[in-house]
Amino acid sequence: MGRKLLLEHINVPGINTFQVYKEKGGYRAVEKALKTMSSDDVVEEVKKSGLRGRGGAGFPTGMKWSFLAKPEGVPRYLVCNADESEPGTFKDRYLMTHIPHALIEGMIIGSYALGANTSYIYVRGEMMPQIRILEKAIAEAKAAGYLGKNILGSGYDLEIYVQPGGGAYICGEETALLESLEGKRGNPRIKPPFPAIAGLYGCPTVVNNVESIAATVPIVNEGGEEYAKIGIGRSTGTKLISASGNINQPGVYEIELGLSVEDFIYSDEYCGGIANGKRLKAVVAGGSSVPILPANLILNLANGDKRLMSYESLSEGGFATGTMLGSGGFVVLDEDQCIVRNTWNFSRFYHHESCGQCSPCREGTGWMEKVLHRIEYGHGKMSDIDLLVDVSKKIEGNTICPLGDAAAWPVASAIRHFRDEFEWHVKEPKLALERNYGLAHYADPLKIAEEV
Amino acid sequence: MLRVEEVQSVEFSSALISKFDEIVSRYPEGRSKSALLPILHEVQAVYGWLSSAAMDKVAEYLNIQPIEVYEVATFYTMFFLKPQGKYVLEVCRTGPCCLVGAEKIMDYIGEKLGIKEGEVTADGLFSYRGVECLAACGYAPVLQIGPEYTFYENLTPESVDQLIEGLKNK
Ligand SMILES: Cc1cc2nc3c(=O)[nH]c(=O)nc-3n(C[C@H](O)[C@H](O)[C@H](O)COP(=O)(O)O)c2cc1C
Ligand code: SF4
Ligand code: FES
Fold first, then answer.
1. Structural domains of chain B, count
2. Conformation bin of residue B75: beta by default, left when phi > 0, alpha when psi is -120 to 50
């Protein structure tokens, strides 16, 4: 059993209430921080913990906090990113539903560390039930003296508000989120300036994911150094993984970083193996934006070693043979799934969600969707496959925000690893409408590159 | 048949206005435009959709130009710009859900209700549409129903039947 820092008490009845959360040791970290630590001490502990942003990019949280500008007389903001819309990712919803106080406690710690007196939790609008849950948790914490004026007699004041989004994936991008929180369309801003200098209302702002913020609670409780002992290398601590697709036990799991991918998929403690006795074909390991890998490359590195659930191991081999941990949205495809159809679906998603500001993203995602649709429905040409690669290259790196890359990578990687499946769709259009390509050679043992 | 835009004018109730006031109090002085999205959700929860008369009223309340409200209402997918069925079944149609049968469930709902995506049943009770990943991929197929956005998870044709019958008899 791996250690649980966030979900330890998930099955305790009433853990969603202030009282039970407190009985189980909740709000100790707030007491400790506000009574015995300076705000800089808290930042220092988070730095020592090695915690990396859990929203997708993996940027070290402590470092992000230390970059926040602190001009005299200007308010600073902590904004929690609870927009959770990356396909395959559902951990933040889970945490907020079941242990809302873990987020509220983390928000108090983070706000204190940054010197923010007003903080916002931006929750995607579809999570109305979670918005109500968080509002109730905030009211409970306030009634108990953990929010409001002069918290625990420390002289520190804090109010937390919950803000609903309106249904737009792009608002998960931090500057689009800030635009949305200001009551505007979610168009990402050109950086610089970075939010640390000019964020919400032009003031210094830190945007952090729900899980990153909640992770500061065990970090303050146990100390950054203790936290850093969990995990492997620069992938410290535990991570929530959302597991979905064709597995026996879909759900949210807290893992110690460094667990092997094979154990995660096949052990009964986690996914419990592939559903219906089928075989594994492919995995999208970190949310829809990261490169898809065939079974043989997700289980093993190109050198034959086991691949691990960590930032480094998942990205080992670059995009040639690796992928990314991303947001931890782990989507499993069995042998009956069609890679072309899945890629087309993701392209449709990105085209739908592009905010339209940059032409490579707005137009490119539309082309990719159209071309993939025609391959999937039996009207593709061989040249379409290279056309897709070409379009994806023209989007990548040429846009205001990373949504362009996020749209390009799934297409480029699907063609890189499953090119023969695309070609089969073009060569056998009738057959491809009737049946799937199947597992083919995608789970075959890797040829270790000894001949090279 | 949908009748387009018969709404000439809208008066918000005093209860709704005090809700707006509470929302505005969450932001710093001079930043009341931040209240726009939460207020539009409140308005839609009352009226079922956003008529331009209602949006104009919101603009008046927040002291901003009507275009500032329209550009937001048209950007975000949760806001309805024409009347819908009383219950809008929003089914996730994104990749992970499709791996376990979301497309079949959506087709089934269409057949069962006898309408196409975006239409309203003759009794005015139901609409349905595909939406993007609802952060519930592990419980797929899923759908949600506003204005409270209750989730229905692990859908099967039988559970869809039950849900629809239950709503009809409500
Ligand atoms: C298109 C797009 C969507 C994103 N969606 C989310 C999201 O839903 N939740 C999230 O925490 N971060 C999301 N991010 C990443 C944020 O921009 C930002 O890096 C993150 O919230 C920082 O928090 P962290 O450092 O704690 O991870 C998204 C980024 C992009 C480009
Ligand atoms: S890359 Fe796409 S989503 Fe991002 S700003 Fe440009 S058009 Fe908008
Ligand atoms: S893909 Fe349907 S909820 Fe995520």
1. 2
2. alpha
